[in-house]
Amino acid sequence: MAYEVVIGLEVHTELKTQSKIFCGCSTKFGAEQNTNVCPVCLGLPGVLPVFNAKVLEFAVRTGLALNCEILPFSKFDRKNYYYPDLPKNFQTSQYDLPIAVNGYLDIEVNGKTRRIGITRVHMEEDAGKLVHAGTINKSDYALVDYNRTGVPLLEIVSEPDLRSPEEAKAYLEKIKAILQYVDVSDCKMEEGSLRCDANISLRPEGQTKFGTKSEIKNLNSFKAVQKGLEYEVYRQTEILEEGGRVIQETRSWDDGRGVTLSMRNKEQAEDYRYFPEPDLVPIVVDPDWVEEVRKNLPELPDARKARLMKDYGLSDYDAGSITASRAMAEYYDVAVASGAEAKAAANWLMGEVSRLLNNSGQLIETCPVTPEKLAGLISLLDKGTITNKIAKTVLENMWSSGKDADTVVKEEGLVQISNEGEIVAIVERILAANPQSVADFKAGKERAIGFLVGQVMKETKGRANPEVVNKLLKEHM
Amino acid sequence: MKITRKDVETVAFLSRLAMDEAEMDKFTGQLNAILEYVDMLNKVDTEGVEPTDHILNLKNVMRADEAKPSLARELALKNAPEQEDGYFKVPKILEG
Q1: Is the ipTM of this complex over 0.90?
Q2: Is residue A200 included in any domain, yes or no?
Q3: Shortest distance, CA A94 to any CA of chain B (angstroms)
Q4: Looking at the predicted structure, is the pLDDT value of residue A409 above 70?
């Protein structure tokens, strides 16, 4: 039987505020254990939380960017459960009146655009971190670091609108791009500032009723989201094919083994006994302020992509890749504003620059070659001062030396040789040394000339103008 | 609404409260008495009355996003029953 996959994602993102959501402790990542804690975030008796205004601004900005409706009246609630990473024994979150509801975003998979509903965006506090001595099952104690407790989080819940692991990955990538564009989170999955849980179920094609879902935790990279869900599709299909029944449970993705493992059975519905947080007063947002935030939203990924396609004639793929990260899109815009030809700038950014970034494990944010300098390189290429091949060498040199293209070309003597007089002597020497290739060419083997061009280029260390070389070779054979 | 013994058991479990059989019976009765009393409120006509979301007539109490010094770690850990390497040490975690 053919099954339809139904996926909904819960994305948690840490907001990049200076201080925690309900106290003044720093949110800085990587501090020594239990040094960013105070009586409020440790949940000591008698303390009172005070809400961080920046969190509200970030939440509204995110809600608007995700096409949500901002609720004029919102409040915090207590979600009660016992786990040592939660010193208060409840998490301050939002239950029935979250800050933003009913949004959507568009994703594109295999050239098809699909609109994915966003149920809600709510504000809450992060929990602490457990450090286990040995594995979770074997150790007889655990160690707790509460630095992360109280770091502001947004939880973004999608509708069960995703229909494949690939779509889930595309959705998460889009969420990340939007969060970076509106500048509310670093979205570093490796540091846990962007995390993802998934609900996934299968149902026979054509059936409207949802099947029994499992919740997958620990999907901590884009690859893990796709792989983990692919595994789960396989696992649930196997069960259903054998006439079995999927049980509702929480499973954890084990990246090393490539499987999901059962964590806890959810047959007994969770009961968090939510109730309104008496220590925090309601949030009433002024519609005029919401409109002001909306007006000040930056250009978002879809709009930016459309602009690059329209204004610069970039392909859907190139425009999509460049705008997938705000930093990349900004780098591109600065390069073009500094005089780089638009398509050449896209090619260099997607090609050589990305290659060097990958090789050195760097992000575009820390690219040693500034967009202005890349524009300088491209213009030397445009003017014919250097050849395409030399340009790659120049870029590598700029990368390590920090110099601009002009300086590198002058210092290294890499100016293109277009002067026929300078090239002709070399051409004659190469022709004399390769009689077989000359004979092949004359016998109609067009390709033989490629070898000869290569020899001239080798002799000139790539500096000869390839068109001139071609022309001279043909003239002198 | 009637509280059953099963409800008391569930709530006790969720709250990690241990109680014996006699206590279960006692609390079932007491909780029912409380609920019956509070049930009087259901007889009040609340048509057109806004729900009370908070007992204080306040809204939007917020602070600016400024990091302040935290507690010294020795102080933070001072009342912990057990600690190790600057961490709070807690018993083995069992998934419920």
Answers
A1: no
A2: yes
A3: 13
A4: yes
Asked if A430 contacts A477 with a C-beta cutoff of 8 angstroms, the reply is no
Per-residue pLDDT, B96 = 40
Residues A325 and A447 in one domain: no
Torsion-angle region of B87 (φ positive above 0: left; ψ -120 to 50: alpha; else: beta): beta
Sign of CA dihedral A395, A401, A407, A408: negative
Q: What is the pLDDT of residues A363-377, one digit of tens each?
A: 899 899 999 999 999
Q: Please report residues of A whose CB lies closer than 8 A to that of B71.
A: 37-39, 42
Least-confidence region, from A154-158, A230-234, A271-275: A271-275
Q: Final residue of a domain: which of A364, A391, A412?
A: A412
Q: List pLDDT tens digits, range A439-467.
A: 888 888 878 888 888 888 888 887 888 88
Residue A336 shares a structural domain with residue A391 = yes
Sheet holding A90-93, edge to edge: A90-93, A77-80, A275-276
Domain residues for A449?
420-476
Question: Phi and psi for B13 in degrees, rounded to 5?
Answer: -65, -50
Question: Which residue on chain A is closest to B79 by alpha carbon?
Answer: A44
Q: Report yes or no: B52 at the A interface, CB cutoff 8 Å.
A: no
Q: Which of A131, A143, A267 to mutate to test the interface with B (most CBs of B within 10 A)?
A: A143
Residue B62 within any structural domain of the chain? no
Domain presence at residue A294: no
Closest partner residue to A139 (CB to CB) among B63, B70, B92 is B92
Cα of B52 to nearest chain A Cα, Å: 11
What integer is the mean pLDDT of A196-222? 93
**CB contact burial A142-181 (16+ within 10 A = b; e otherwise):** bbbbbbbbbbbbbbbbbbbbbebbbbbbbbbbbbbbbbbb
Distance, CA of A102 to chain centre: 24
Nearest residue in B to A89, CA atom? B15
Distance from A151 to chain B by nearest Cα, in Å?
12
> Are A251 and A339 contained in the same domain?
no
Domain count within chain B: 1
B92 lies within 8 A of chain A by CB:
yes
Of the residues B15, B50, B70, the best mutation for testing chain A's interface (the one with the most A CB atoms within 10 Å of its CB) is: B70
A443: in domain:
yes
Please tell me the predicted confidence (pLDDT) of residue A406.
Answer: 84
